[in-house]
Each structure stands twice: as structure tokens, then as C-alpha cells.
Amino acid sequence: MVRVRTRREIELIAESAQIVADTLDMLSTKVTSGVSLLELDAQAEEFIRSRNARPAFKGYMGFPATLCISVDDEVVHGIPSNSKLSEGQIVGIDCGAEKNGYYGDSARTFAVGNISDNNRDLMLTTEKALALGIEQAKPGNHVSDIGHAIQSFVEPKGFSIVRELVGHGIGTQLHEDPQVPNYGVPGMGGELKEGMCLAIEPMINCGRKEVYTAEDGWTIKTKDGYNSAHFEHTIAIRENGAEILSRSQLNG
Ligand code: MG
Ligand code: MG
To answer: Would residue 251 count as lying in a domain?
Structure first.
């Protein structure tokens, strides 16, 4: 069932989503060559708890950490380890927080130092695809209009869209109905209504779309070994369109 949230509930979702955005802002200056993934995870957990919230991923289905950190050919759901970042990598950081029973969920892909033009293009394309998807999240549109906008933008550039993982409703649970695929024909799926809250999250591959789950049982990787990028926002559908609840407070 797709929930329509009250104004007050959206305020609570927004509070959690802003904590996630602030966590990612905090991390953005720390994603540098030589930092270990576990250090980033520890800083994120401390930050979230300092805001009287709870890391939403920790313990979710048994996931062991605050952040999903996915480097280069890892698409999503990477488990932070003591491995260190190095120059030229791209690193997807996905974060969730729960406060007062309401959830926020957001992800960004960061560059570690100087990255290749191809990696830059992949990241910019994924971030722009998210923005185009969000534009379609308005009353009267349908769920698949979001994915259609993403697909129409991404595939002509020669990148591919992960099919196995999708966006989702969000609110009193981390993952709620509806599923929000990042591809599709327009006008399908449920009608979007004012008050719905969604996490929209394109996962875009440099090479082919196929992915697999690594031996740790969590990390999703590209089959062909080419890199992947991921951006995600928690949004609320308002009368006139989407409001991004996990917006960065940094300039640019
Ligand atoms: Mg997420
Ligand atoms: Mg999500």
C-alpha cells in the first residue's frame, strides 16, 4: 500500500532526511586518498547519533554498518572495511537515518582526488538523471514517468541502468511501496499523489547493466567490472511538484 503522509509526518521525514544530507555534507570533505572506509563509517555513526537519530541501515536485515560504501565497480550495498580510498576512485556513499520513527535515505557518489573524464561523466549523468526523475514526481503523474525520464536521459549517453535494484516509498519504514524503477515506459504504475514520500535512486553503470552479489552476501558489483555511480534523494510530492528533503546545505 502506498501511504499518503500528513504535513506533520512529512516534517518528521524531512528532519531525518536532513540529518542524512548533513551527514553526507560532513563526509564530503573526508572522502580523500588514504582514509579508511571504517573511519568514514564511524564518523557518520557518531554524527547521526549526535543529532539524536539512529543509523537506519545498521542492523537492517543484518547489515553491519551505518553506511553502504561502494567503490568503483561496486554498485551499492558495499560493507565498510579497513581498506583505504585511493586517488582516482569514485565512491558511492548511501546513508539512512531514523528519528522519531521516521526515515530519511540519501546517497551521493564522490570523487577521490582527480578522476578520469569517463568517471566524471558517469557521476554527472547519474546526478542529472536523479534530478530529471525528481521533476516527474508530481501529482497526476505515474510511478513509471520517473523511470522513463531517467532512462531517456541515461541510455542515449551509452551508460546502462541497473534493473535489479529500484527506488522506493519511505516514511515509517526504510523501504515502503511503491517500487520506483529507474527505467520504463511512461504512464504506468500507480498514480502519484500529494503527500507521497519517495526515495529515488538511479544506479548507473559505465558498461553493461548486469550485476551480481559478491561473496559477502551484500555488495552488488557490475559483472563486467566497469564502474557504477549512485545518487539518491528522499522527496515529498507536494501540490506543485517534488520537494527534495535530503538537500545538501553546501554551495554548488
Ligand atoms: Mg539509500
Ligand atoms: Mg534507498
So the answer is: no
